[in-house]
């Protein structure tokens, strides 16, 4: 980040870092450099770029903007959130031990258990919510703590600063998946995390028109490891995807305000609804980690989970009857989505594991979009 912007607020950085006027034409939007390779002045004498798997000007501008908004020194973009997670995990070795949350996105759980456990990586899946004490669970071979907060889909909130302090005393790296909050609402690096990972498909891109992932850190050694794997394994986004996601980043703060306002009103509506058993939203006072959420988040975000009064079949019928909420996986776009985690996003987690985690088959997850909240409430009400 340049000195010009390092003391400015995140919303300002999102618009200006990586979008400096283009030097030849003065264009205020970074061009899409849709190229795979670059002419060299002489053998081995490149003009800053050699091959677009390694570096691309459009991607580099976007990566600088990501780092600036997050408050980190280094940002890396990937073809998907799972590609970003995969790169982080590839820095581990057989025999290493990971402490991970027990309420993870289904794709993360699948990656850990089907790809890295067979390679000799050890995992303990724990409930990190609230004032969880990491100390009794640390082993001599523990190398990493993997947090989602709020978690997906039960929206449990973990104390990032407390966990990071305990982990760092044992030289353990703390990674936080901040996808649900985005850097507009929560800054894990400021709270002590070493690495932040995103599915930029969600709120950062914000328009459901591109798939991507990102890693941000201020640790130069970790960054160099991730950068090497990014280049070597090659799971990079194309220039147009970088352009779209960078454009989304510029309006992130504004969108998250509306997502949060709509979600809070929807959560209160659901909490008073006769056909709802329980509502889970971090900025509801009924949430068990409400005080912690208010302490480390600047707002509640756009995600709500709730348990319907009835069985899994009734929940499945309800999610299929909405007219504005689209029945779809993913989250974080301007349009509202509804889904059944047990059948859809978390189906890769065995039923018995979901039951242990408290993931009810009557649970429904909402990604509350930017539509008029009155229309959204009417839609949910008629779907019941």
Compose a concise summary of this entry:
The chain has 384 residues and is an alpha/beta fold.
Output the structural class. Answer: alpha/beta
CATH H-level name of the largest domain... which superfamily? Type I PLP-dependent aspartate aminotransferase-like (Major domain)
Q: Which percent range fits the helix content?
A: 25-40%
Largest sheet: 7 strands, mixed
Strand content: 15-25%
Structural summary, described in words:
The protein has 384 residues and is an alpha/beta fold. Helices cover 35% and strands 15% of the residues. The chain contains 13 helices and twelve strands. It has helices at 10-16, 57-70, 81-89, 106-116, 160-168, 188-191, 220-233, 239-250, 252-271, 290-296, 312-319, 351-357, 373-383; strands at residues 74-78, 97-101, 122-126, 142-148, 173-177, 195-199, 213-217, 276-280, 303-308, 326-327, 337-339, 363-367. Strands 1-7-6-5-4-2-3 form a seven-stranded mixed beta sheet, with helices on both faces. Helix 1 (10-16) packs antiparallel against helix 2 and helix 2 (57-70) packs parallel to helix 8. The model has no long low-confidence stretch (mean pLDDT 94).
What are the defining features of this structure?
384 residues, alpha/beta, Aspartate Aminotransferase, domain 2, seven-stranded mixed β-sheet
Question: What are the SSEs and their pairings?
Answer:
Layout lengths: L9 H7 L40 H14 L3 E5 L2 H9 L7 E5 L4 H11 L5 E5 L15 E7 L11 H9 L4 E5 L10 H4 L3 E5 L13 E5 L2 H14 L5 H12 L1 H20 L4 E5 L9 H7 L6 E6 L3 H8 L6 E2 L9 E3 L11 H7 L5 E5 L5 H11 L1
Parallel strand pairs: 2-3, 2-4, 4-5, 5-6, 10-11
Antiparallel strand pairs: 1-7, 6-7, 8-9, 9-12, 11-12
Helix pairs in contact: 1-2, 2-8, 3-4
């Amino acid at each position: 980040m340049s000195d010009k912007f390092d003391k400015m607020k995140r919303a300002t950085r999102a618009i200006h870092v990586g979008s400096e006027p283009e030097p030849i034409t003065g264009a205020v939007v970074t061009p899409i450099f849709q190229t795979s390779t670059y002419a060299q002045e002489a053998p081995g004498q490149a003009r800053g770029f050699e091959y677009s798997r390694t570096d691309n000007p459009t991607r580099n501008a976007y990566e600088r903007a990501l780092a600036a908004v997050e408050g980190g020194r280094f940002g890396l973009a990937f073809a998907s959130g799972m590609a970003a997670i995969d790169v982080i995990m590839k820095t581990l070795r057989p025999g290493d031990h990971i402490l991970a949350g027990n309420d993870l996105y289904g794709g993360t759980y699948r990656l850990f258990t089907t790809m890295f456990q067979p390679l000799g990586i050890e995992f303990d899946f724990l409930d990190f919510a609230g004032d969880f004490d990491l100390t009794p669970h640390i082993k001599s071979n523990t190398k990493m703590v993997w947090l989602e907060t709020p978690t997906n889909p039960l929206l449990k909130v973990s104390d990032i600063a407390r966990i990071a302090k305990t982990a760092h005393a044992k030289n353990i790296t703390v990674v936080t998946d901040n996808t649900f909050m985005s850097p507009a609402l929560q800054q894990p690096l400021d709270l002590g995390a070493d690495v932040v990972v995103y599915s930029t498909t969600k709120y950062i891109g914000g328009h459901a028109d591109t798939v991507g992932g990102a890693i941000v850190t201020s640790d130069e050694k970790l960054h160099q490891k991730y950068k090497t794997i990014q280049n070597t394994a090659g799971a990079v986004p194309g220039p147009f995807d970088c352009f779209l996601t960078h454009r989304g980043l510029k309006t992130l703060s504004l969108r998250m305000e509306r997502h949060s306002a709509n979600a809070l009103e929807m959560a209160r509506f659901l909490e008073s609804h006769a056909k709802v058993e329980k509502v889970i939203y971090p900025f509801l006072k009924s949430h068990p980690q409400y005080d912690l959420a208010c302490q480390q988040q600047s707002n509640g975000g756009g995600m709500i989970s709730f348990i319907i009064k009835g069985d899994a079949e009734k929940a499945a019928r309800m999610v299929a009857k909405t007219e504005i909420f689209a029945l779809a996986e993913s989250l974080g776009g301007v349009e509202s989505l509804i889904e059944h985690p047990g059948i859809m996003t978390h189906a890769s987690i065995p039923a018995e594991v979901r039951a242990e985690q408290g993931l009810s088959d009557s649970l429904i997850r909402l990604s509350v979009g930017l539509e008029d909240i009155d229309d959204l409430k009417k839609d949910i009400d008629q779907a019941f």
